[in-house]
Design goal:
Length: 306
């Protein structure tokens, strides 16, 4: 919009038209750029964006539902469960824990306290274990008030923790490929109420690159078609910007409505594709021109060449 408005203000477009160039020839550069943007949009919509979001969601799910979510903060008492508390003085870059204290009251009658110079928190078969080196294990029998201490070079203590919900993850619409979106019944665990949302998302991914063409042609129609006016091009610029905004609003609004009522899906195609032939027609159509206006454009072209 800015480039062609500047060409109009600098009288470049009247010169091009006076030299016999059609609106399509004048718009060639913008159309080539539109084609490149359209291809990039298809690459993003059909593979790159859903694949990257899928990888992100899988990593997020793994972090939430594995033992790696037990991030022990240094210098504080970390409650891994209602009965187990762990203190770590320092964590090295390799993940080794220094200055470990574990207090376990899983058995209320025999609370266990372990202290070690170093160790690590690991996951084994879905359970968390603290492997400690160079420390001691203290046990108090509350019934008899008996205290015992065991020194060890290496000791493994299993830690009961709160288990998160590990049910199968239901993928979001943004991480599914187009065939999966168009056939939502193949996605395991998906709520049937969300079928419409997924179907519309699939059609929108295939259609949204065409919005690049619709927007470009709509803007070019207002900026290149018609006659030159010495009063300025503010009206055309406003019409071009308004046309693009209206196309975007129509596309988003219809997509939201169609997600609730799938029968309205054809309106999404109409709002996206119909502006292409309409804009093309007005760019190609040559109304009967006033001879005086044509002579004025030729005069402007001659002045610009001097």
């Amino acid at each position: 919009t800015f480039v062609y408005s500047r060409l109009n203000m600098d009288r470049e477009l009247p010169v091009m038209r006076a030299c016999g160039m059609s609106n399509w020839s004048i718009s060639k550069g913008a159309l080539i750029l539109t084609a490149l943007v359209m291809m990039a949009s298809y690459a993003l919509n059909l593979y790159l964006v859903p694949k990257s979001y899928q990888l992100f969601r899988e990593l997020q799910w793994e972090l939430r539902h594995s033992m790696s979510h037990l991030l022990l903060r240094e210098g504080t008492f970390n409650e891994l469960s209602s009965t187990v508390t762990v203190y770590v003085r320092e964590r090295t870059q390799e993940g080794q824990l220094l200055g470990i204290l574990v207090h376990d009251e899983t058995d209320p009658q025999r609370p266990v306290t372990l202290m070690a110079e170093r160790g690590a928190l690991v996951e084994v078969d879905g359970s968390a274990r603290v492997i400690m080196f160079d420390g001691n294990r203290q046990v108090v029998e509350r019934a008899t008030h008996k205290f015992s201490m065991l020194y060890f070079d290496r000791y493994t203590h299993e830690v009961p923790i709160k288990q998160n919900d590990t049910s199968d993850r239901v993928p979001e619409a943004r991480e599914l490929m187009v065939p999966e979106l168009l056939h939502p019944e193949t996605t395991k665990g998906l709520d049937p109420h969300d079928f419409g949302k997924h179907i519309v998302e699939g059609h929108q991914r295939m259609l949204s690159p065409f919005l690049c063409v619709s927007n470009a042609l709509a803007a070019l129609m207002f900026l290149t078609a018609g006659q030159f006016s010495r009063r300025g091009q503010a009206r055309r610029i406003l019409l071009a910007i308004s046309g693009v905004i209206l196309l975007q609003i129509a596309s988003l609004g219809i997509a939201n409505v169609a997600a609730k009522n799938i029968d309205l899906l054809p309106l999404l195609y109409i709002a996206t594709l119909v502006p292409i032939p309409v804009s093309s027609f007005f760019m190609t159509w040559h109304p009967k021109q006033n001879p005086k206006r044509v002579a004025r454009e030729i005069e402007f072209a001659a002045q610009a060449e001097r």
